[in-house]
Design brief:
mainly alpha, 13 helices, disordered N terminus, disordered C terminus
Length: 317
């Protein structure tokens, strides 16, 4: 019985979709990297990291609300579980934004971005504790390597002589831990609703939390400051378009590829700090940064390969 020959047009279309989706993931990571640099400028001008994070999330909320309005199908807004886990994701992203900018304010963009990139390590540790992931020698060695990189990057072995303060290092790691909370919240909410609905709830929770914690005077001053274009760009790139690009891009991007291109974020943030904020890193810090980035990327690739390499399927919503 003759076999049907593959459709070259369909194959070409899938290749184009995969390429476009990967580009969207790259743009998202690049935007997040730029947002770190813009946050560094704003905190350097004296703006409270909570206020900077609030406006980043508030502008992002407007974008995901528009996305939900355009694609309301399968929102899951009637699901209590979706609301619960989306709120957890909102708590995580609120902590991620705030601790990230606090780490930048107290240290540097390069250190903060790299420490935040440690989030997958926290995901693994929590997964081990909850029995969601089986610990292996490879994973433990990778975690130890990341911790060694953190020690070298932050200089905590000689904190008195280093440029990285305990607050900067602690806030950077807390931003990574908070991002891990966001990942878990989003993961458990996903079966019950659409990504756009989850992000609307998450960003709404972020706005409520940070509005209650922020400096009221600065919150109002942002509306009339000459720095408002930076706040606008931060919100559009750092939360609005970037989250949409990333989630849409993952529909056709293999997890292994996404793991690699995610390195664009800390690299972009670090280069921004060096070029525009006159930041610098010692040789041992650069080695620590490379150790973290390469190990975390390798850990993510290993996880992707273990997931039976099932091709990602587009969502219907």
């Amino acid at each position: 019985m003759p076999h049907a020959s593959p459709n070259p047009l369909k194959s070409l279309t899938n290749e184009k979709l995969a390429g476009l989706s990967t580009l969207l993931v790259v743009l998202a990571a690049f935007s997040w990297g730029l947002s770190g640099g813009i946050g560094g400028i704003l905190t350097g001008q004296g703006w409270d990291p909570v206020v900077v994070s609030f406006y980043r999330g508030a502008i992002g909320l407007l974008f995901v609300l528009a996305w939900l309005a355009l694609r309301p199908q399968g929102s899951g807004l009637a699901s209590g579980r979706m609301w619960l886990w989306s709120a957890v994701a909102g708590l995580g992203v609120a902590g991620n934004f705030t601790f990230y900018f606090l780490s930048i304010a107290e240290g540097s963009v390069a250190v903060a971005a790299t420490l935040m990139y440690c989030a997958p390590v926290f995901v693994y540790l929590v997964s081990f504790a909850l029995g969601l992931e089986r610990p292996t020698l490879f994973k433990w060695v990778a975690i130890v390597m990341v911790l060694l990189g953190v020690v070298l990057l932050t200089g905590i072995y000689d904190i008195g002589a280093g440029d990285v303060t305990l607050i900067a290092a602690g806030a950077g790691l807390a931003s990574g831990l908070s991002y891990a909370v966001f990942i878990f919240g989003f993961k458990f909410a996903a079966p019950h609703g659409s990504p756009q609905a989850i992000l609307v709830i998450a960003f709404a929770v972020l706005v409520l939390i940070l509005f209650s914690l922020g400096d009221p005077g600065q919150m109002v001053d942002v509306l009339s400051t000459s720095s408002w274009p930076l706040f606008l760009v931060l919100g559009v790139l750092g939360a609005g378009l970037s989250f949409i690009f990333y989630i849409v891009g993952l529909n056709y991007t293999a997890p292994a590829v996404a793991s690699i291109v995610a390195m664009v974020e800390p690299v972009t943030a670090s280069l921004f700090g060096v070029v525009f904020l006159d930041e610098s890193l010692a040789a041992v810090q650069i080695f620590g940064m490379a150790l973290i980035l390469l190990t975390v990327t390798g850990l993510s690739l290993h996880s992707s390969l273990q997931a039976k390499a099932v091709p990602p399927q587009p969502r219907s919503d």
